[in-house]
Specification:
The complex is a heterodimer of chains A (208) and B (378). Chain A has 208 residues and is mostly helical. Chain A is built from 11 helices and no strands. Chain B is of the alpha+beta class and 378 residues long. Classes of the chains: A mainly alpha (208), B alpha+beta (378).
Protein backbone atom coordinates (compact mmCIF):
# COMPACT_ATOMS: atom_id res chain seq x y z
CA UNK A 1 0.00 0.00 0.00
CA UNK A 2 1.18 3.47 -0.77
CA UNK A 3 2.54 5.36 2.16
CA UNK A 4 1.15 8.74 2.91
CA UNK A 5 3.46 11.70 3.03
CA UNK A 6 3.00 11.80 6.79
CA UNK A 7 4.12 8.21 7.12
CA UNK A 8 7.22 8.87 5.11
CA UNK A 9 8.00 11.98 7.10
CA UNK A 10 7.41 10.21 10.40
CA UNK A 11 9.75 7.42 9.34
CA UNK A 12 12.39 9.95 8.48
CA UNK A 13 11.85 11.97 11.64
CA UNK A 14 12.16 8.80 13.73
CA UNK A 15 15.52 8.20 12.16
CA UNK A 16 16.62 11.61 13.31
CA UNK A 17 15.83 13.68 10.26
CA UNK A 18 14.75 16.88 11.90
CA UNK A 19 13.93 18.47 8.59
CA UNK A 20 11.23 15.85 8.19
CA UNK A 21 9.78 16.81 11.54
CA UNK A 22 9.84 20.42 10.45
CA UNK A 23 7.77 19.38 7.46
CA UNK A 24 5.33 17.59 9.74
CA UNK A 25 4.98 20.77 11.75
CA UNK A 26 4.31 22.67 8.55
CA UNK A 27 1.65 20.15 7.55
CA UNK A 28 -0.19 20.15 10.85
CA UNK A 29 0.44 23.41 12.64
CA UNK A 30 -2.71 24.99 11.33
CA UNK A 31 -5.02 22.31 12.67
CA UNK A 32 -3.05 21.93 15.88
CA UNK A 33 -3.12 25.64 16.50
CA UNK A 34 -6.82 25.86 15.79
CA UNK A 35 -7.65 23.03 18.16
CA UNK A 36 -5.62 24.77 20.83
CA UNK A 37 -7.21 28.11 20.11
CA UNK A 38 -10.76 26.80 20.31
CA UNK A 39 -10.07 24.90 23.49
CA UNK A 40 -8.15 27.57 25.34
CA UNK A 41 -10.06 30.51 23.85
CA UNK A 42 -7.09 32.83 23.45
CA UNK A 43 -3.99 33.14 21.32
CA UNK A 44 -1.44 33.28 24.07
CA UNK A 45 -2.40 29.95 25.59
CA UNK A 46 -3.07 28.48 22.16
CA UNK A 47 0.49 29.25 21.08
CA UNK A 48 1.94 27.80 24.24
CA UNK A 49 -0.15 24.69 24.18
CA UNK A 50 0.22 24.02 20.47
CA UNK A 51 4.00 24.33 20.77
CA UNK A 52 3.96 22.15 23.83
CA UNK A 53 2.01 19.54 21.88
CA UNK A 54 4.57 19.48 19.07
CA UNK A 55 7.35 19.18 21.59
CA UNK A 56 5.60 16.27 23.27
CA UNK A 57 5.06 14.65 19.90
CA UNK A 58 8.70 15.11 19.01
CA UNK A 59 9.92 13.66 22.29
CA UNK A 60 7.65 10.65 22.09
CA UNK A 61 7.89 10.02 18.38
CA UNK A 62 9.65 6.74 19.07
CA UNK A 63 6.51 5.55 20.83
CA UNK A 64 4.33 6.26 17.82
CA UNK A 65 3.68 2.84 16.32
CA UNK A 66 1.39 3.83 13.52
CA UNK A 67 -1.70 2.18 15.00
CA UNK A 68 -3.57 5.32 14.06
CA UNK A 69 -2.64 7.99 11.59
CA UNK A 70 -0.02 10.47 12.69
CA UNK A 71 -2.64 13.22 12.58
CA UNK A 72 -4.95 11.33 14.96
CA UNK A 73 -2.08 10.65 17.31
CA UNK A 74 -0.91 14.25 17.19
CA UNK A 75 -4.36 15.74 17.72
CA UNK A 76 -4.84 13.54 20.75
CA UNK A 77 -1.65 14.97 22.16
CA UNK A 78 -2.91 18.49 21.50
CA UNK A 79 -6.18 17.78 23.23
CA UNK A 80 -4.37 16.38 26.23
CA UNK A 81 -1.99 19.31 26.35
CA UNK A 82 -5.00 21.64 26.29
CA UNK A 83 -6.71 19.76 29.07
CA UNK A 84 -3.58 20.00 31.18
CA UNK A 85 -3.44 23.72 30.53
CA UNK A 86 -7.11 24.16 31.40
CA UNK A 87 -6.67 22.27 34.65
CA UNK A 88 -3.69 24.43 35.48
CA UNK A 89 -5.57 27.56 34.57
CA UNK A 90 -8.54 26.60 36.66
CA UNK A 91 -6.33 26.90 39.68
CA UNK A 92 -4.89 30.22 38.59
CA UNK A 93 -7.20 32.59 36.86
CA UNK A 94 -10.42 33.28 35.02
CA UNK A 95 -11.08 33.14 31.30
CA UNK A 96 -10.12 35.75 28.80
CA UNK A 97 -12.83 37.77 27.19
CA UNK A 98 -11.50 40.06 24.53
CA UNK A 99 -8.42 38.26 23.34
CA UNK A 100 -9.69 37.66 19.87
CA UNK A 101 -10.13 41.38 19.36
CA UNK A 102 -7.13 42.80 21.08
CA UNK A 103 -4.56 40.28 19.96
CA UNK A 104 -5.83 39.33 16.63
CA UNK A 105 -5.89 42.08 14.10
CA UNK A 106 -4.51 39.54 11.65
CA UNK A 107 -7.49 37.30 12.02
CA UNK A 108 -9.97 40.09 11.67
CA UNK A 109 -8.45 41.61 8.61
CA UNK A 110 -8.09 38.25 7.02
CA UNK A 111 -11.73 37.52 7.51
CA UNK A 112 -12.63 40.81 5.97
CA UNK A 113 -10.27 40.35 3.09
CA UNK A 114 -11.44 36.82 2.38
CA UNK A 115 -15.08 37.49 2.05
CA UNK A 116 -16.87 38.04 -1.20
CA UNK A 117 -19.44 40.17 0.59
CA UNK A 118 -19.29 43.90 0.93
CA UNK A 119 -17.50 45.45 3.89
CA UNK A 120 -20.65 45.65 5.99
CA UNK A 121 -21.51 42.01 5.65
CA UNK A 122 -17.90 41.16 6.26
CA UNK A 123 -17.89 43.16 9.46
CA UNK A 124 -21.11 41.53 10.50
CA UNK A 125 -19.59 38.15 9.85
CA UNK A 126 -16.59 39.02 11.98
CA UNK A 127 -18.93 40.20 14.73
CA UNK A 128 -20.86 36.95 14.61
CA UNK A 129 -17.70 34.91 14.73
CA UNK A 130 -16.50 36.85 17.70
CA UNK A 131 -19.81 36.48 19.49
CA UNK A 132 -19.80 32.74 18.87
CA UNK A 133 -16.24 32.38 20.11
CA UNK A 134 -16.93 34.45 23.20
CA UNK A 135 -20.00 32.39 23.96
CA UNK A 136 -17.94 29.24 23.71
CA UNK A 137 -15.26 30.79 25.92
CA UNK A 138 -17.86 31.51 28.57
CA UNK A 139 -18.69 27.83 28.99
CA UNK A 140 -17.10 25.98 31.84
CA UNK A 141 -14.02 24.05 30.73
CA UNK A 142 -15.56 20.61 31.03
CA UNK A 143 -18.48 21.61 28.81
CA UNK A 144 -16.42 23.59 26.34
CA UNK A 145 -13.99 20.74 25.77
CA UNK A 146 -16.75 18.30 24.89
CA UNK A 147 -18.45 20.82 22.64
CA UNK A 148 -15.29 21.74 20.77
CA UNK A 149 -14.27 18.12 20.31
CA UNK A 150 -17.68 17.26 18.93
CA UNK A 151 -18.88 20.29 17.00
CA UNK A 152 -15.58 21.71 15.78
CA UNK A 153 -13.25 18.75 15.69
CA UNK A 154 -15.94 16.23 14.79
CA UNK A 155 -14.97 13.43 17.17
CA UNK A 156 -17.49 10.65 17.88
CA UNK A 157 -18.99 10.30 21.34
CA UNK A 158 -16.88 7.22 21.92
CA UNK A 159 -13.68 8.96 20.95
CA UNK A 160 -14.48 11.85 23.26
CA UNK A 161 -15.24 9.48 26.13
CA UNK A 162 -11.94 7.68 25.53
CA UNK A 163 -9.85 10.82 25.28
CA UNK A 164 -11.29 12.40 28.38
CA UNK A 165 -11.62 9.24 30.40
CA UNK A 166 -15.30 9.80 31.10
CA UNK A 167 -18.23 7.56 30.28
CA UNK A 168 -20.54 7.90 27.33
CA UNK A 169 -23.45 9.12 29.42
CA UNK A 170 -21.33 11.96 30.75
CA UNK A 171 -20.32 12.94 27.21
CA UNK A 172 -23.98 13.05 26.20
CA UNK A 173 -25.12 15.07 29.17
CA UNK A 174 -22.23 17.54 29.03
CA UNK A 175 -22.72 18.07 25.33
CA UNK A 176 -26.42 18.54 25.90
CA UNK A 177 -25.79 21.10 28.63
CA UNK A 178 -23.16 22.91 26.58
CA UNK A 179 -25.33 23.16 23.49
CA UNK A 180 -28.34 24.32 25.45
CA UNK A 181 -26.33 26.99 27.20
CA UNK A 182 -25.03 28.20 23.84
CA UNK A 183 -28.49 28.07 22.34
CA UNK A 184 -29.70 30.41 25.09
CA UNK A 185 -26.82 32.79 24.49
CA UNK A 186 -27.18 32.75 20.72
CA UNK A 187 -30.91 33.32 21.15
CA UNK A 188 -30.37 36.35 23.35
CA UNK A 189 -27.79 37.69 20.89
CA UNK A 190 -30.36 37.22 18.12
CA UNK A 191 -28.09 34.88 16.25
CA UNK A 192 -30.77 32.28 15.71
CA UNK A 193 -33.34 32.52 12.95
CA UNK A 194 -36.61 34.25 13.96
CA UNK A 195 -38.90 31.27 14.00
CA UNK A 196 -36.68 29.63 16.54
CA UNK A 197 -36.60 32.72 18.73
CA UNK A 198 -40.37 32.77 18.51
CA UNK A 199 -40.77 29.12 19.40
CA UNK A 200 -38.16 29.50 22.09
CA UNK A 201 -40.31 32.12 23.74
CA UNK A 202 -43.32 29.92 23.36
CA UNK A 203 -41.50 26.95 24.76
CA UNK A 204 -40.02 28.78 27.66
CA UNK A 205 -41.89 26.90 30.32
CA UNK A 206 -40.36 23.69 29.10
CA UNK A 207 -36.84 24.82 29.46
CA UNK A 208 -34.60 24.16 32.38
CA UNK B 1 -43.14 10.55 26.96
CA UNK B 2 -43.43 14.17 28.05
CA UNK B 3 -41.21 17.08 27.05
CA UNK B 4 -39.03 16.86 30.12
CA UNK B 5 -38.19 13.28 29.33
CA UNK B 6 -37.26 14.20 25.77
CA UNK B 7 -35.33 17.43 26.14
CA UNK B 8 -32.24 15.76 27.55
CA UNK B 9 -32.09 13.46 24.54
CA UNK B 10 -32.41 16.01 21.77
CA UNK B 11 -28.73 16.85 21.54
CA UNK B 12 -27.82 13.18 21.08
CA UNK B 13 -30.77 12.84 18.71
CA UNK B 14 -29.32 15.52 16.45
CA UNK B 15 -26.07 13.55 16.35
CA UNK B 16 -27.80 10.26 15.68
CA UNK B 17 -26.38 8.88 18.89
CA UNK B 18 -29.57 7.54 20.49
CA UNK B 19 -30.29 3.90 21.09
CA UNK B 20 -33.04 2.38 18.96
CA UNK B 21 -35.52 2.57 21.82
CA UNK B 22 -34.73 6.20 22.64
CA UNK B 23 -34.87 7.14 18.99
CA UNK B 24 -38.33 5.67 18.62
CA UNK B 25 -39.62 7.52 21.67
CA UNK B 26 -38.11 10.84 20.60
CA UNK B 27 -39.42 10.57 17.06
CA UNK B 28 -42.89 9.77 18.27
CA UNK B 29 -42.80 12.74 20.60
CA UNK B 30 -41.46 15.13 17.99
CA UNK B 31 -44.32 14.30 15.64
CA UNK B 32 -46.85 15.72 18.04
CA UNK B 33 -44.84 18.34 19.99
CA UNK B 34 -43.91 21.47 18.03
CA UNK B 35 -42.06 22.94 20.95
CA UNK B 36 -39.60 20.12 21.03
CA UNK B 37 -39.39 20.07 17.23
CA UNK B 38 -38.46 23.75 17.39
CA UNK B 39 -35.91 22.95 20.03
CA UNK B 40 -34.31 20.53 17.60
CA UNK B 41 -34.18 23.34 15.02
CA UNK B 42 -32.58 25.68 17.51
CA UNK B 43 -30.00 23.06 18.46
CA UNK B 44 -29.17 22.45 14.83
CA UNK B 45 -28.68 26.16 14.29
CA UNK B 46 -26.54 26.39 17.39
CA UNK B 47 -24.32 23.57 16.19
CA UNK B 48 -24.12 25.14 12.74
CA UNK B 49 -23.01 28.44 14.26
CA UNK B 50 -20.28 26.74 16.24
CA UNK B 51 -19.17 24.81 13.19
CA UNK B 52 -19.15 28.01 11.13
CA UNK B 53 -16.21 29.38 13.06
CA UNK B 54 -13.47 30.01 10.57
CA UNK B 55 -9.99 28.78 11.15
CA UNK B 56 -7.76 31.32 12.80
CA UNK B 57 -4.37 32.12 11.40
CA UNK B 58 -1.36 30.66 13.07
CA UNK B 59 0.62 33.61 14.44
CA UNK B 60 3.59 34.38 12.26
CA UNK B 61 6.11 33.78 15.01
CA UNK B 62 4.64 30.42 15.96
CA UNK B 63 6.88 28.20 13.89
CA UNK B 64 10.00 30.17 14.71
CA UNK B 65 9.28 30.03 18.44
CA UNK B 66 8.53 26.34 18.25
CA UNK B 67 11.70 25.82 16.30
CA UNK B 68 13.72 27.56 18.99
CA UNK B 69 12.14 25.46 21.71
CA UNK B 70 12.88 22.28 19.78
CA UNK B 71 16.44 23.33 19.18
CA UNK B 72 16.83 23.98 22.88
CA UNK B 73 15.55 20.47 23.46
CA UNK B 74 18.64 19.04 21.84
CA UNK B 75 19.16 16.44 19.16
CA UNK B 76 16.42 13.97 18.30
CA UNK B 77 16.05 10.66 20.05
CA UNK B 78 17.75 8.43 17.56
CA UNK B 79 21.02 9.22 15.93
CA UNK B 80 20.03 8.08 12.52
CA UNK B 81 21.50 9.36 9.33
CA UNK B 82 20.04 12.55 8.17
CA UNK B 83 18.93 13.20 4.68
CA UNK B 84 20.32 16.44 3.53
CA UNK B 85 20.19 15.79 -0.15
CA UNK B 86 18.44 18.25 -2.31
CA UNK B 87 17.92 21.13 -0.07
CA UNK B 88 16.88 24.07 -2.07
CA UNK B 89 19.58 26.58 -1.57
CA UNK B 90 17.25 29.39 -0.82
CA UNK B 91 15.99 27.58 2.25
CA UNK B 92 16.77 29.80 5.19
CA UNK B 93 19.43 28.38 7.35
CA UNK B 94 17.85 28.91 10.70
CA UNK B 95 15.32 26.20 10.17
CA UNK B 96 18.01 23.61 9.98
CA UNK B 97 18.63 21.61 13.06
CA UNK B 98 21.55 19.42 13.87
CA UNK B 99 22.92 17.88 10.72
CA UNK B 100 25.51 15.15 11.13
CA UNK B 101 28.69 16.72 9.94
CA UNK B 102 29.82 13.80 7.80
CA UNK B 103 26.58 13.62 5.92
CA UNK B 104 26.55 17.32 5.45
CA UNK B 105 30.12 17.39 4.22
CA UNK B 106 29.52 14.61 1.74
CA UNK B 107 26.51 16.30 0.29
CA UNK B 108 27.14 19.95 0.40
CA UNK B 109 30.73 20.31 -0.58
CA UNK B 110 31.35 23.77 -1.76
CA UNK B 111 28.47 25.41 0.02
CA UNK B 112 30.09 27.65 2.52
CA UNK B 113 26.99 28.35 4.49
CA UNK B 114 26.52 24.65 5.08
CA UNK B 115 30.10 24.23 6.21
CA UNK B 116 29.40 23.25 9.78
CA UNK B 117 25.74 22.61 9.32
CA UNK B 118 25.55 22.08 13.06
CA UNK B 119 23.73 24.07 15.58
CA UNK B 120 25.66 27.23 15.79
CA UNK B 121 24.78 30.35 17.62
CA UNK B 122 23.78 31.87 14.32
CA UNK B 123 21.42 29.10 13.45
CA UNK B 124 18.24 29.27 15.43
CA UNK B 125 17.28 32.80 16.05
CA UNK B 126 19.28 35.39 14.23
CA UNK B 127 17.56 35.39 10.87
CA UNK B 128 14.16 35.43 12.49
CA UNK B 129 14.69 38.96 13.47
CA UNK B 130 15.92 40.02 10.11
CA UNK B 131 13.77 41.35 7.38
CA UNK B 132 12.84 38.78 4.81
CA UNK B 133 15.13 40.15 2.25
CA UNK B 134 18.10 39.91 4.54
CA UNK B 135 18.71 36.24 4.00
CA UNK B 136 16.77 34.67 1.24
CA UNK B 137 19.67 32.78 -0.19
CA UNK B 138 22.42 31.14 1.80
CA UNK B 139 24.41 30.33 -1.30
CA UNK B 140 27.28 32.41 -2.43
CA UNK B 141 26.63 33.90 -5.81
CA UNK B 142 28.32 31.78 -8.39
CA UNK B 143 28.30 28.63 -6.35
CA UNK B 144 27.51 25.74 -8.58
CA UNK B 145 24.38 24.13 -7.30
CA UNK B 146 25.37 20.82 -8.79
CA UNK B 147 27.90 20.37 -6.03
CA UNK B 148 25.02 19.69 -3.73
CA UNK B 149 24.79 16.23 -5.15
CA UNK B 150 28.25 15.43 -3.89
CA UNK B 151 30.41 12.74 -5.42
CA UNK B 152 27.98 11.26 -7.88
CA UNK B 153 29.22 8.35 -9.91
CA UNK B 154 25.92 6.91 -10.99
CA UNK B 155 24.08 7.76 -14.12
CA UNK B 156 21.11 9.06 -12.17
CA UNK B 157 22.48 12.12 -10.49
CA UNK B 158 20.28 13.50 -7.80
CA UNK B 159 20.52 17.12 -8.52
CA UNK B 160 19.30 20.01 -6.52
CA UNK B 161 17.17 21.90 -8.94
CA UNK B 162 14.84 24.49 -7.56
CA UNK B 163 13.40 24.94 -11.01
CA UNK B 164 9.96 23.57 -10.85
CA UNK B 165 9.19 21.81 -14.11
CA UNK B 166 5.53 22.45 -13.56
CA UNK B 167 6.19 26.14 -13.40
CA UNK B 168 7.19 27.41 -16.78
CA UNK B 169 8.77 30.82 -16.68
CA UNK B 170 6.36 33.49 -17.70
CA UNK B 171 3.48 31.81 -15.95
CA UNK B 172 3.90 33.73 -12.82
CA UNK B 173 0.83 35.79 -13.43
CA UNK B 174 2.49 38.75 -11.89
CA UNK B 175 3.72 41.04 -14.54
CA UNK B 176 5.54 43.43 -12.29
CA UNK B 177 7.90 40.89 -10.86
CA UNK B 178 11.41 41.87 -11.64
CA UNK B 179 12.75 38.38 -11.09
CA UNK B 180 11.65 35.16 -12.66
CA UNK B 181 10.66 32.94 -9.73
CA UNK B 182 11.69 29.85 -11.61
CA UNK B 183 15.27 30.94 -11.88
CA UNK B 184 17.70 28.96 -9.76
CA UNK B 185 18.88 31.16 -6.94
CA UNK B 186 22.54 30.92 -7.75
CA UNK B 187 22.05 32.58 -11.10
CA UNK B 188 19.20 34.74 -10.03
CA UNK B 189 19.23 38.46 -9.95
CA UNK B 190 18.45 37.93 -6.34
CA UNK B 191 19.27 41.18 -4.64
CA UNK B 192 20.96 39.70 -1.61
CA UNK B 193 23.91 37.39 -1.34
CA UNK B 194 23.94 35.74 2.04
CA UNK B 195 27.17 36.32 3.75
CA UNK B 196 27.15 39.99 3.13
CA UNK B 197 25.42 42.20 5.63
CA UNK B 198 21.71 42.74 5.04
CA UNK B 199 20.99 45.04 2.18
CA UNK B 200 19.51 48.39 3.00
CA UNK B 201 16.02 47.05 2.56
CA UNK B 202 14.41 46.76 5.93
CA UNK B 203 12.96 49.65 7.81
CA UNK B 204 16.11 49.74 9.92
CA UNK B 205 17.91 51.14 6.95
CA UNK B 206 15.72 54.18 6.91
CA UNK B 207 17.42 56.82 8.93
CA UNK B 208 15.17 58.57 11.38
CA UNK B 209 14.19 61.86 9.91
CA UNK B 210 15.55 60.83 6.55
CA UNK B 211 13.62 60.01 3.43
CA UNK B 212 11.82 56.73 3.70
CA UNK B 213 12.39 54.25 0.91
CA UNK B 214 9.77 51.59 0.48
CA UNK B 215 10.96 48.01 0.86
CA UNK B 216 10.39 45.43 -1.88
CA UNK B 217 7.07 43.63 -2.10
CA UNK B 218 6.67 40.51 0.02
CA UNK B 219 5.44 38.90 -3.17
CA UNK B 220 8.77 39.37 -4.89
CA UNK B 221 9.69 36.00 -6.43
CA UNK B 222 6.43 34.49 -5.31
CA UNK B 223 4.21 33.33 -8.16
CA UNK B 224 0.47 33.45 -7.69
CA UNK B 225 -0.48 29.81 -7.12
CA UNK B 226 -3.78 30.50 -8.87
CA UNK B 227 -1.88 30.84 -12.13
CA UNK B 228 0.27 27.77 -11.62
CA UNK B 229 -0.45 24.35 -12.95
CA UNK B 230 -1.39 21.80 -10.31
CA UNK B 231 1.51 21.45 -7.89
CA UNK B 232 2.14 18.24 -6.09
CA UNK B 233 4.81 16.31 -4.28
CA UNK B 234 5.35 12.90 -5.85
CA UNK B 235 5.71 9.82 -3.74
CA UNK B 236 6.82 6.36 -4.77
CA UNK B 237 7.06 3.47 -2.43
CA UNK B 238 8.66 0.15 -3.36
CA UNK B 239 8.66 -2.98 -1.27
CA UNK B 240 11.00 -5.64 -2.51
CA UNK B 241 12.53 -8.85 -1.33
CA UNK B 242 15.91 -10.15 -2.24
CA UNK B 243 18.14 -13.07 -1.35
CA UNK B 244 20.80 -10.57 -0.61
CA UNK B 245 19.38 -7.14 0.23
CA UNK B 246 22.78 -5.66 1.00
CA UNK B 247 23.78 -5.91 -2.67
CA UNK B 248 20.67 -4.02 -3.63
CA UNK B 249 21.33 -1.43 -0.97
CA UNK B 250 24.80 -0.91 -2.38
CA UNK B 251 23.38 -0.50 -5.85
CA UNK B 252 20.79 1.98 -4.60
CA UNK B 253 23.39 3.90 -2.67
CA UNK B 254 25.40 4.33 -5.80
CA UNK B 255 22.43 5.64 -7.74
CA UNK B 256 20.98 7.76 -4.97
CA UNK B 257 23.88 9.45 -3.26
CA UNK B 258 21.64 11.53 -1.02
CA UNK B 259 19.59 8.61 0.20
CA UNK B 260 18.86 7.91 3.82
CA UNK B 261 19.48 4.31 4.73
CA UNK B 262 18.05 2.66 7.76
CA UNK B 263 18.46 -0.91 8.86
CA UNK B 264 16.08 -2.76 11.13
CA UNK B 265 17.19 -6.36 11.57
CA UNK B 266 17.71 -7.60 8.06
CA UNK B 267 15.32 -5.13 6.55
CA UNK B 268 16.64 -2.02 4.90
CA UNK B 269 14.80 1.17 4.23
CA UNK B 270 16.23 3.49 1.67
CA UNK B 271 14.59 6.77 0.96
CA UNK B 272 15.65 9.66 -1.16
CA UNK B 273 14.37 12.96 -2.36
CA UNK B 274 14.81 13.41 -6.07
CA UNK B 275 13.91 16.13 -8.50
CA UNK B 276 10.46 15.88 -10.00
CA UNK B 277 11.74 15.56 -13.55
CA UNK B 278 13.94 12.60 -12.65
CA UNK B 279 11.35 11.03 -10.44
CA UNK B 280 9.75 8.69 -12.98
CA UNK B 281 13.09 7.66 -14.42
CA UNK B 282 14.50 6.80 -11.00
CA UNK B 283 11.33 5.02 -9.93
CA UNK B 284 11.49 2.86 -13.07
CA UNK B 285 15.13 2.20 -12.48
CA UNK B 286 14.38 1.00 -8.97
CA UNK B 287 11.60 -1.19 -10.27
CA UNK B 288 14.02 -2.79 -12.69
CA UNK B 289 16.64 -3.15 -10.03
CA UNK B 290 14.40 -4.73 -7.43
CA UNK B 291 11.87 -6.45 -9.64
CA UNK B 292 9.08 -4.96 -7.55
CA UNK B 293 6.34 -2.55 -8.47
CA UNK B 294 6.45 1.01 -7.25
CA UNK B 295 3.28 2.33 -5.69
CA UNK B 296 2.86 5.91 -6.77
CA UNK B 297 1.10 8.71 -5.00
CA UNK B 298 1.21 12.44 -4.59
CA UNK B 299 0.32 15.22 -2.23
CA UNK B 300 -1.50 18.23 -3.59
CA UNK B 301 0.21 21.52 -2.75
CA UNK B 302 -1.78 24.26 -4.48
CA UNK B 303 -4.16 24.91 -1.63
CA UNK B 304 -1.33 25.25 0.89
CA UNK B 305 0.51 27.53 -1.50
CA UNK B 306 -2.62 29.61 -1.87
CA UNK B 307 -2.84 30.08 1.88
CA UNK B 308 0.75 31.27 2.10
CA UNK B 309 0.26 33.48 -0.92
CA UNK B 310 -2.89 35.10 0.40
CA UNK B 311 -1.19 35.85 3.67
CA UNK B 312 1.75 37.42 1.89
CA UNK B 313 -0.62 39.46 -0.22
CA UNK B 314 -2.48 40.70 2.83
CA UNK B 315 0.71 41.54 4.72
CA UNK B 316 2.09 43.28 1.67
CA UNK B 317 -1.01 45.43 1.38
CA UNK B 318 -0.70 46.37 5.03
CA UNK B 319 2.92 47.20 4.49
CA UNK B 320 2.18 49.40 1.49
CA UNK B 321 -0.37 51.35 3.49
CA UNK B 322 2.04 51.78 6.36
CA UNK B 323 4.89 52.77 4.10
CA UNK B 324 2.76 55.34 2.35
CA UNK B 325 2.12 56.84 5.78
CA UNK B 326 5.79 56.61 6.68
CA UNK B 327 6.82 58.62 3.68
CA UNK B 328 4.85 61.56 5.06
CA UNK B 329 5.49 61.19 8.78
CA UNK B 330 7.79 63.67 10.43
CA UNK B 331 7.08 63.11 14.10
CA UNK B 332 9.87 60.89 15.45
CA UNK B 333 7.68 58.87 17.80
CA UNK B 334 5.09 58.18 15.15
CA UNK B 335 7.83 57.31 12.73
CA UNK B 336 9.41 54.86 15.12
CA UNK B 337 6.07 53.20 15.74
CA UNK B 338 5.38 52.90 12.03
CA UNK B 339 8.85 51.51 11.40
CA UNK B 340 8.35 48.97 14.12
CA UNK B 341 5.06 47.99 12.56
CA UNK B 342 6.66 47.51 9.15
CA UNK B 343 9.38 45.44 10.81
CA UNK B 344 6.73 43.32 12.46
CA UNK B 345 4.88 42.82 9.17
CA UNK B 346 8.17 41.81 7.61
CA UNK B 347 8.82 39.25 10.31
CA UNK B 348 5.37 37.82 9.81
CA UNK B 349 5.80 37.75 6.06
CA UNK B 350 9.07 35.89 6.44
CA UNK B 351 7.30 32.88 7.87
CA UNK B 352 4.89 32.63 4.96
CA UNK B 353 7.72 33.27 2.57
CA UNK B 354 9.54 30.28 3.96
CA UNK B 355 6.40 28.22 3.90
CA UNK B 356 5.95 29.06 0.24
CA UNK B 357 9.51 28.13 -0.55
CA UNK B 358 9.17 24.90 1.33
CA UNK B 359 6.11 24.06 -0.77
CA UNK B 360 7.97 25.00 -3.93
CA UNK B 361 10.74 22.66 -2.82
CA UNK B 362 8.24 19.92 -2.34
CA UNK B 363 6.67 20.57 -5.74
CA UNK B 364 10.07 20.39 -7.36
CA UNK B 365 10.89 17.09 -5.74
CA UNK B 366 9.53 13.64 -5.08
CA UNK B 367 10.17 11.13 -2.36
CA UNK B 368 11.14 7.60 -3.23
CA UNK B 369 11.22 5.06 -0.49
CA UNK B 370 12.38 1.49 -0.89
CA UNK B 371 11.95 -1.28 1.66
CA UNK B 372 14.19 -4.26 1.13
CA UNK B 373 13.64 -7.51 2.96
CA UNK B 374 15.56 -10.76 2.74
CA UNK B 375 13.45 -13.22 0.76
CA UNK B 376 13.67 -16.05 3.30
CA UNK B 377 11.81 -13.81 5.71
CA UNK B 378 8.83 -13.85 3.42
Amino acid sequence: MSKSLDELLVERAKRGDVEAFEQLIGQHQRTVYNIAYRLTGNHEDASDVAQEAFIRAYSSLAEFRGDSSFATWLYRIVNNACLDELRKRKRQRVTYIDESVTMDDGEMSRQIADTADGPEQALERVEIQRAVQESINSLDDEYRVVLVMRDIQGYSYNEIADSLGINLGTVKSRLNRARNALKEKFGSLELLAPRVVYSGRRGKIHEL
Amino acid sequence: MNCDGVRGLLSAYVDGELSAGELLRVEQHLRRCHWCADEVDALRQTIALVASLEEVEVPAVFHAQLHDRLVALGPPMSAGRTAVALKRNSRPNYRRWAVPAAAAAALVIGLSSYGSGLLGPQTPSAPVNNPIAANPNPVQPGTDVATVTGPTQGDLPVKADPLNPATPPGETGNGDQPTDPGTPPETAKDPVPTDTPPLPLGPTSNNPGGVYTATPSFLLNIPDPGTLEPQSHLIASVEATSVNPTDLVEALKEQLPGATINQVGETYQVSATVTADQFAQIARFIEDLTGAKAVLGSTELNSQMAVAYENLQRLDQEKQVEEAKLAKLTDETERAAALEYVADLTRRAKVFHEEFERLQDMAATGTISVTLKPSQAQ
